[in-house]
Amino acid sequence: MQSPSSAIPDFYYALFAFYEPALTIIGFIGVLCDPEASHNTQAPWPADSPPPAVLPKASIVTVIQLAHVCALMGIINFFVLRAARTHLASHLAVQEKIVQALMIPLLLGDVMHLYVTLWALGDDRWNVARWSPMLWTTVVVGLSLVVPRIMWHLGIWRHVDARDRLPTGAGHGTRAEKI
């Protein structure tokens, strides 16, 4: 039996080191290109109060800063996961702990992001027929990240050191050496 080479297998690596950073960077570029549209499409507007034609500078700065922080989180994912896979390949337990240290706050952030998005919508939160395409994208993309992150924490489709560690003992060798 061959030991796995990573606590973050290819499926999770592709998702969290490439898909998630790509989403955040594309979102940041979209906000840079049109901060007003990015702001105005976040949630449904009341029929009697359309979005402003021109946003105040403070709103533009806030939207751009928020998008920048999201892009930064995506870039951090890429570099931490790449470093863990590259430099800790022979230390699965340590690699798992490092990846877990990244995944816990990201999972909490995913859940809170979905929660505060729905909370901020107030009475419109369950009126999905009025949701903007941007709001749908936020919820669907959020779920496309939170579900696999929960799966990673549950140990689905990955090596979990406490569960899957190859047995070792004084003078007994590993199971892989015996086979």
From TrEMBL:
Keyword terms: Membrane, Transmembrane, Transmembrane helix
InterPro entries, per database record: DUF7704
Keyword Transmembrane part of the UniProt annotation: yes
Transmembrane segments: 12-32, 58-81, 102-122, 134-157
Pfam family for this entry, one: DUF7704
Origin: domain of life: Eukaryota
Residue span(s) of domain DUF7704: 6-157
The protein's name in its UniProt record: DUF7704 domain-containing protein
